[in-house]
Specification:
Oligomer: single chain
Strand content: 15-25%
Number of helices: 12
Shape: globular
Distance between the termini: 49 Å
Strand order of the largest sheet: 4-5-8-6-7
Low-confidence stretches: none
Structural class: alpha+beta
Length: 327
Amino acid sequence: MLRLPRFDYAEPGSIADAIDLRARSGDDAMFVAGGTDLYPNMKRRQQTPRTVISLAKIPELAMIEGTPESGVRVGSGVTLTRLACDPLIVRHYPAVARAAQLVSTPLLRNMGTIGGNLLLDTRCNYYDQTYEWRRAIGFCMKKDGEICWVAPSSPRCWAVQSSDGAPVAVALGAEVTLASERGERRVPAAELYYNDGMRYLTKAPEELLVSYHLPPRGRWRATYQKLRRRGSFDFPVLGVATRVDFAEDGAVEDARIVLGGVASYPMEIAGAAEAIVGSRLDASAIGAAADAAFRPAKPMDNTDFTLAWRKEMVRVYVQRALEELAG
């Protein structure tokens, strides 16, 4: 049985108190919301904070407010179950609801939050193991070791971004608000991530993700497609988030196609989006976009399935996503 290490547990009642407590506790402290990522990591000794600061009792983090016309603010503490079922989200932001609904299992969605999902630790077959297993191979670059076992001659870590919510946030052009003692800053979701398995977030460790801002509705549609071995529980080995903006005459005015599970960050494929701009999402344009997404996608051999098959599925899933929007 894997056991949690000893730690102090704090439960502040406001954002200000949480930020102040983190500042006083220093780098040995971490925020936790649902804990569905942090606590398993702590059991495997991948993360070992001495102080865990719970966000569960902060009401401001559990709010969904706004309108489709002005944009919707989702508190980072909103659970994935609530996000998947909220009438406003389901009706006007169905890609967000679908991504939330596809995370793990009902029990974990009841605990997990959208903030935690957006900040999900990168994953790898060599990293997401018990402490004893990792010690037996000399650990890995991401934690306690010096070698990336996925690419032993590489100077960087290739752990994969496996969040369902992150590709959707980037595709929608959503933003997030981060807060610390220095104040608040609001950044595009696309600027929240680095393509680095170890330093995968631009967010500073002491910053708290306060809210997730969905853009106003217009003549755009979005969707999310997920590949995994089982229909539940599993992390994505490929996620495809797409947003298509339509002109009044039905032609594609702008688009974003973002891949998850193929790099250490949500990977936007500009060439695939350019392939459909100006079209009416006909079969030829969709095929060209699928081919354009296939070429730069270079999944590594560090998750489920073979990397060659996962790469081929990029073409298939981009086509499916665009056909759904065309339909």
